[in-house]
């Protein structure tokens, strides 16, 4: 019999970034008792770091914009692997979500005539990113938090209890999704198992709806823009609960992270620098992106520097600069320049805005970047170029969900939204499309989670048995006394050493450029690391013990890394965030293939825990296909799809 404390809520949201808060607000507004559990402090989600803006086709700066253009850009960016329904919903609903933020108190930068200003970003045909300088995520989170507090104040007036219908459990980690029947992969969700990070106290929340909104996986890689929270928890929780992950081979390496000094390597340099006029140059001073415009994009990008520069003031009569190609293209180009020996002194290339905008304008538009480089690298970006290189930034892959309801495939009661969900961005996400994704699908997840819970009577609610809580508790305390046998290869393991080896393996073998032999090697190493992680040992007790937290996170990072490596080895083409040295071209035959990852311990050969399944991506509706020229479609669609048109 477990002694773990249990409490009962209608909806549990795991994560308090943009997706989680938007889901929680929706569920609470529908009258459901909603609990939010987040591993960091309330307000310190990853969303707060978002810089450039939120993409929504409001047409404030160029009236030519509309949801159809946004949909088209999103599909082009994702190389037509996006779930078409998700991309459609996202493009249609993003403007409403931004206007809604404004009604909740968000203060966006304005155009001269007082509308929400929108800036240029890679892959977006028109200026589309609503922004607050380069601190957009901060304003987004501040606004959502303010909305949470407003709802809590309403509840206080009604019941005398601020937390009667919306409560945040901050600095608490969820380690398991509980089920009605733990042995049945398809059984209903019954809640979550958690621990308080500060005290180590365990508790469980019983609830028929669980929304995963835990963000990404970047901490599995050595060079990343992501913070400590991004250990793929939601991805792993879904897998362990029986839900598949989709598109895991697609990991976005943002082209511009800091490369110097080493202590800050990977920290993001926002795409707004290029959106606002910044250009990339190699050590010879050449604006090299003109050499890397791929055939599929040639028509849409400027042919020379003169045209590219004219575009900033006359976008209707000129084409975009190639610095604003989708991120995967720019990251590969930088990688190639460095490899060819034309890099900057510290292994990146130069990003220069100092010769493109007056100093005061740089400080006004890019205050965080100005501050970041001055403080961290002693570089004044109003006077000299930055050194930048690719950094692991975002995962396109995630929980396989129903586009309309955000329900996870095959596990009733489980929902996912935000970076932890897959499908929306296809093989490559456009900048700005994450913040809009969080709000569009966060709202939908909250809505449908609420509807599911509201439809059940008390007697119909699923309940996890005590044995599940006891098993979750035993799993969580294992690092204090791991099962250790006699012999050198069965000794206790240091979680920090395992984490370092994992990051190195993912960086070297499943990074920006991939090949089959290296990924096979990665799978072997990951299986060995997984065995070692079972013996990860920590000293001390459960209070304030970061080593223990890491030992628990390792399970998640290793599972998710295996999904990335296994799916990446299987996909024998290059597309978006997945580049194969041994299969350099995009292969139309792969256009409709989704790879699903499922947990399956019977995968003997390389000791893995994940099985792959192939599934066809749904067809794109004819009215949506009509948004593209036939010539362009012929570059992407399979032979049959082209024939059937
Ligand atoms: P997050 O905001 O990361 O929230 C995840 C939440 O889950 C956190 O509260 C965390 O504590 C919690 N959590 C995780 N695991 C657990 C667990 N086991 N138990 C309990 N809680 C857990 N996108 C754009 O569209 N525009 C931009 O300008 C932009 N700029 C960016 C700049 C940077 C530096 C970075 C890193 C990303 C940027 N992105 C941008 C991407 C975007 O910020 C993220 O994709 C997005 O914020 C993810 O939001 P989320 O709600 O899914 O997750």
UniProtKB/TrEMBL annotation:
UniProt-recorded Gene Ontology molecular function terms: steroid dehydrogenase activity, acting on the CH-CH group of donors
FAD-dependent oxidoreductase 2 FAD-binding domain ranges (all copies): 10-435
Keywords: FAD, Flavoprotein, Oxidoreductase
Keyword Flavoprotein set for record: yes
Ranges for domain Fumarate reductase/succinate dehydrogenase flavoprotein-like C-terminal: 499-597
Membrane-spanning residues: none
InterPro entries per UniProt: FAD-dep_OxRdtase_2_FAD-bd, FAD/NAD-bd_sf, Fum_R/Succ_DH_flav-like_C_sf, Fum_Rdtase/Succ_DH_flav-like_C, SdhA/FrdA/AprA, Succ_DH/fumarate_Rdtase_cat_sf
Superkingdom of this protein's organism: Bacteria
Essential cofactor(s): FAD
Active site (record annotation): 327 (proton acceptor)
PANTHER family recorded: SUCCINATE DEHYDROGENASE 2 FLAVOPROTEIN SUBUNIT, SUCCINATE DEHYDROGENASE [UBIQUINONE] FLAVOPROTEIN SUBUNIT, MITOCHONDRIAL
Protein name as catalogued: Fumarate reductase/succinate dehydrogenase flavoprotein subunit
The species this protein was found in: Streptomyces radicis
High-level lineage: Bacteria, Bacillati, Actinomycetota, Actinomycetes, Kitasatosporales
């Amino acid at each position: 019999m477990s002694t773990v404390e249990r409490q009962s809520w209608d909806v549990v949201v795991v994560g308090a970034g943009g997706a989680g808060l938007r889901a929680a607000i929706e569920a609470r507004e529908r009258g459901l008792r909603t609990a939010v559990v987040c591993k960091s402090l309330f307000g310190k989600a990853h969303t707060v770091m978002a810089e450039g803006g939120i993409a929504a086709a409001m047409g404030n700066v160029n009236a030519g914009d509309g949801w159809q253009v946004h949909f088209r850009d999103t599909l082009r960016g994702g190389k037509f692997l996006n779930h078409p329904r998700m991309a459609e919903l996202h493009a249609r609903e993003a403007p409403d979500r931004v206007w809604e933020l404004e009604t909740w108190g968000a203060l966006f930068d304005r155009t001269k005539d007082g509308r929400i200003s929108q800036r240029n970003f890679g892959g977006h045909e028109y200026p589309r990113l609503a922004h607050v300088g380069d601190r957009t995520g901060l304003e987004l989170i501040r606004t959502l938090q303010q909305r949470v507090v407003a709802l809590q104040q309403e509840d206080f007036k009604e019941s005398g209890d601020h937390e009667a219908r919306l409560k945040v459990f901050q600095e608490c980690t969820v380690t398991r999704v509980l089920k009605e029947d733990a042995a049945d992969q398809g059984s209903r969700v019954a809640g979550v198992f958690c621990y308080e990070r500060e005290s180590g106290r365990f508790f469980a929340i019983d609830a028929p709806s669980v929304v995963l909104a835990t963000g990404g996986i970047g901490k599995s890689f050595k060079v990343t823009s992501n913070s400590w929270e991004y250990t793929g928890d939601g991805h792993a929780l879904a897998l362990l609960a029986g839900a598949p992950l989709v598109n895991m081979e697609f990991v976005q390496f943002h082209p511009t992270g800091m490369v110097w000094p080493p202590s800050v390597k990977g920290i993001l340099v926002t795409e707004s620098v290029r959106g606002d006029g910044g250009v990339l140059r190699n050590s010879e001073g050449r604006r090299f992106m003109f050499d890397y415009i791929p055939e599929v994009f040639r028509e849409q990008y400027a042919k020379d520097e003169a045209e590219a520069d004219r575009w900033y003031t006359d976008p209707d009569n000129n084409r975009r600069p190639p610095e604003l190609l989708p991120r995967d293209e720019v990251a590969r180009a930088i990688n190639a320049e460095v490899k060819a020996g034309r890099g900057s002194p510290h292994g990146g290339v130069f990003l220069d805005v100092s010769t493109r905008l007056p100093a005061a304008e740089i400080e006004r538009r890019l205050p965080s970047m100005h501050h970041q480089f001055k403080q961290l690298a002693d570089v004044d970006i109003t006077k000299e170029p930055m050194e930048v290189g690719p950094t692991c930034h975002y995962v396109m892959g995630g929980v396989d969900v129903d586009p309309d309801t955000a329900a996870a495939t095959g596990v009733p009661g489980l929902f996912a939204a935000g970076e932890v969900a897959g499908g929306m961005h296809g093989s490559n996400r456009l900048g700005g499309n994450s913040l809009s994704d969080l709000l569009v699908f966060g709202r939908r997840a909250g809505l449908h989670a609420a509807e599911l819970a509201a439809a059940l009577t008390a007697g119909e609610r699923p309940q996890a048995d005590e044995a599940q809580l006891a098993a979750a508790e035993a799993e969580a305390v294992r690092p204090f006394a791991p099962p250790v046998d006699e012999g050198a290869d069965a000794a206790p393991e240091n979680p920090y050493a395992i984490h370092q080896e994992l990051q190195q393996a993912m960086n070297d073998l499943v990074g920006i450029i991939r090949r089959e032999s290296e990924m096979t090697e990665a799978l072997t190493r990951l299986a060995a690391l997984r065995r070692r992680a079972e013996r990860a040992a920590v000293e001390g007790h459960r209070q304030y013990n970061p080593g223990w937290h890491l030992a628990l996170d390792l399970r998640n990072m290793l599972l998710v890394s295996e999904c990335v490596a296994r799916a990446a080895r299987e996909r024998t083409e290059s597309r978006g965030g997945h580049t194969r040295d041994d299969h350099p071209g995009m292969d139309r035959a792969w256009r409709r293939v989704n790879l699903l990852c499922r947990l399956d311990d019977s995968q003997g050969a390389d000791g893995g825990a994940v099985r792959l399944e192939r599934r066809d991506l749904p067809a794109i509706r004819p009215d949506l296909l009509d948004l593209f020229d036939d010539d362009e479609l012929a570059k992407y669609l399979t032979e049959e799809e082209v024939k059937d048109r």
